[in-house]
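Below is just one:
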Amino acid sequence: MIYLNLFLGFLKVGCFAFGGAYGAIPLIRDAVLSYGWLSEETLTYMIAVSESTPGPIMVNLATYVGSSQAGLLGAIVATLAVVLPSFIIILLVTAFLKSVLKNEYVQAILRGLKPCVIGIVLATGIYMVFENCFGAISAVTLNVQTIIITALLAVSMFGYKHFAKKKLSPILLIVISAIAGMAVYGT
């Protein structure tokens, strides 16, 4: 039964995740919490780990959740389920729908989806920052360590852009956050 639940849960994520991994985080959160596979806190940590490890976040999260719930076979089932819709869509697009992508109505739909995806990614980021810095809305508690790391990352990002006149590399930002996390939380 766990294999079927993993397959269906991550198939739903794979089918409805528009805009890449960051747009999928709310869907992954919903699936993982509704099935009780991980706690909110563990999921947040896994999102951070998935961001800093090679590969797509959706695949990394699906593999981790599948592995934690049903071992190697669970990891394989969850990973296949999350990539299967994209794989099928890409096959269909390359085989049959090249001309459809040039259609003005399809282009209008895709342009209309862009702001929605941006909003979902922004809302997820803001939610994660507030959840980790200030706790749940029902019981607000300040997490000073998380606030310090968030402020350090914001200063690094905006300061670098101001002085270097270009954006800070996401890889460098991930390295800075990993070092700050180790310094603040100690390992």
